[in-house]
Amino acid sequence: MTSRSLLNLTMLAAVASLAVWVYFKPKPQNDPQEYKVSSQAAENVQSLRIERQGVGIVLQKIGENWDLLEPIQGRADEIKVGQILEILTATSLRRFPAIDLERFDLLQPAAQLYIDKELFSFGGFVPITNEQYVANNGSIHLLERRYATMLARQPIELLSPRLFSQGEIPIGFEFEKVKVMELDGGWRIAPEKPNASLTQNEFIHWVQSWQQAYAAGLSMDTEGPNQIGDGKQGIKITLRGGGGIQLTILQQQPELILLRVDTGIRYRFPGETGRRLLNPYTAVGG
Fold first, then answer.
1. Which residues, in sequence order, are bridge partners of residue 176?
2. I want to staple 233 with a disulfide (CB 3.0 to 4.6 A). Which of 15, 249, 272, 277 is the partner?
3. In sequence order, what are the residues at sequence separation of 6 or more whose Cβ sits closer than 8 angstroms to the Cβ of residue 119?
4. CA distances from 22 to 12, 19, 25, 30, 32 (A)
5. 102: which residues sit within 8 A by CB, 6+ positions away?
6. Angle CA(145)–CA(146)–CA(150) in degrees, nearest 5?
């Protein structure tokens, strides 16, 4: 065997020995241990309650969707509900027994979250790491403060910005002077605009813009339908399977504000979005 072959075998043996040592080396005693905050699975949760600054917000899962029940009622923003439930998969590197709560600002928590019957209490912060003390199941964990920021201060923050729910499929729109209807498998408008026509694809695109409309802002109606005034225009929307939605146009410029009468929620849309929603002919420059 040549000296070069012997050198290669020696190096190969050294590399193999190093690999075995790395693989089987004992774990350092100071490696951080992670503690699971909860054992619940998000998909099994049926109710949420947030208590913060004297405001209690209750949400309930009905079927596959989340609804607000108190203090206002309406469809919940599914994305924000999912963000709240992220705490169920949180882990912490430091855990303390839930004693001496005053030390952690947990005698009067800044916020409390009930996920079904499991309680999470949010206390003070660690200045250096900006982590927050969170009490749960007899322990206090240090968690990122983002979990507390997911908890709405006002219930309207958790309402869905979608004008329609997923199951609400429009088949007719009745404006003050124009009707758009689905008839015999196609869309029609009456009266038609002279020297302008819409293709079925343009109709479908316009209807989808309604069905997928996301408001830029929400507010609760405080006046009631009888206090809005007779001069406001209405939109009557017929839904597939029966039923309908009544909207009131509260404002068109510089932005569109629609009141959904059945929920008492006002939806605010940018001016250009409003122009497209109110005029099907915008698809052809009308």
1. none
2. 249
3. 112, 113, 135, 136
4. 15, 5, 5, 17, 19
5. none
6. 125
Structure tokens at 123: 């206390």
| C-alpha distances out from residue 183 to 175, 180, 187, 190, 192, Å | 17, 10, 6, 12, 15
Asked whether 180 and 233 are in contact (CB, 8 A), the reply is no
**CATH code that applies to domain 35-158:** 2.60.40
Dump pLDDT digits (tens) for 38-80. Answer: 999 999 999 999 999 888 999 999 999 999 999 999 999 999 9
Q: Give the whole-angstrom CA distance, residue 219 versus residue 211.
A: 20
Domain regions of the chain by residue span: 35-158, 170-284
CA–CA dist 68, 158 (Å, integer) = 8
Torsion over CA: 202, 205, 209, 211 (sign): positive
Give the Å distances, CA to CA, from 145 to 21, 73, 131, 209.
Answer: 40, 28, 6, 37
Q: How many CB atoms lie within 10 A of CB 60?
A: 15
pLDDT in tens, 233-267: 999 999 999 999 999 999 999 999 999 999 999 99
User: What contacts 258, CB < 8 A, 6 or more positions away?
Assistant: 163, 235, 247, 248, 249, 250, 266, 267, 269
Beta bridge partner(s), residue 118: 115
In angstroms, rounded to a whole number, what is the distance separating the alpha carbons of residues 75 and 88?
23
